[in-house]
Write a structure and sequence with these properties.
174 residues; alpha+beta; 5 strands; 5 helices; 25% strand
């Protein structure tokens, strides 16, 4: 697909991630963590991504955005998602875990193309819901998502148990 904000000879290609992309995927994840002010929070390894994205017990899917110009392809961003399930709707949905475009490629329509692509996957697979989270201070992303029709869920607050608290909960007697 060619985007109007791209240079004249640039072509944007969205494709499924492959095992060969794992080092780049991990680099994108680390860059995203830095952007989100948590540069030391990434514990994932290439082995983790290979196992969970490309192994027999696949737990996520990934789309790579490649920008090609003058016979050279560069990975410009990615979207990593997985399926969840809505008991109320009785259908699977898609949860977008990460969306990232490298700073030098922002403003060229790549993030929008990735979101549109994953939304199309959701529709094609009969998923009535496509959702993700955004940090409350990330105004540029919030504005971008709202321009695309996303609605901020204000009644629901995300909850999480991890690390030692998760281990303690798992062993708590009833």
């Amino acid at each position: 697909m060619t985007k109007s904000l791209l240079r004249r000879n640039d072509v944007l290609n969205l494709r499924p991630g492959t095992p060969a992309d794992v080092p780049q995927i991990l680099a994108f994840i680390r860059d995203l963590a830095t952007y989100e002010r948590e540069p030391d929070a990434v514990l994932a390894t290439e082995a983790d991504l290979l196992r969970d994205g490309f192994g027999p017990g696949k737990r996520f899917d990934c789309v790579i955005a490649e920008l090609t110009s003058d016979e050279k392809s560069t990975a410009a961003g990615f979207a990593l998602y997985f399926y969840n399930y809505s008991t109320w709707r009785g259908h699977a949905g898609i949860y977008l875990e990460d969306l990232y475009v490298s700073p030098e490629y922002r403003g060229k329509g790549i993030g929008k193309a990735l979101l549109v692509h994953v939304a199309a996957i959701a529709v094609a697979e009969g998923c009535p819901r496509f959702e993700w989270s955004v940090l409350d201070w990330n105004t540029p992303s919030i504005d971008f998502y709202q321009q695309l029709g996303a609605v901020m869920k204000s009644e629901w607050k995300g909850m999480q148990v991890s690390g030692d608290a998760l281990a303690a909960l798992a062993t708590r007697s009833q």
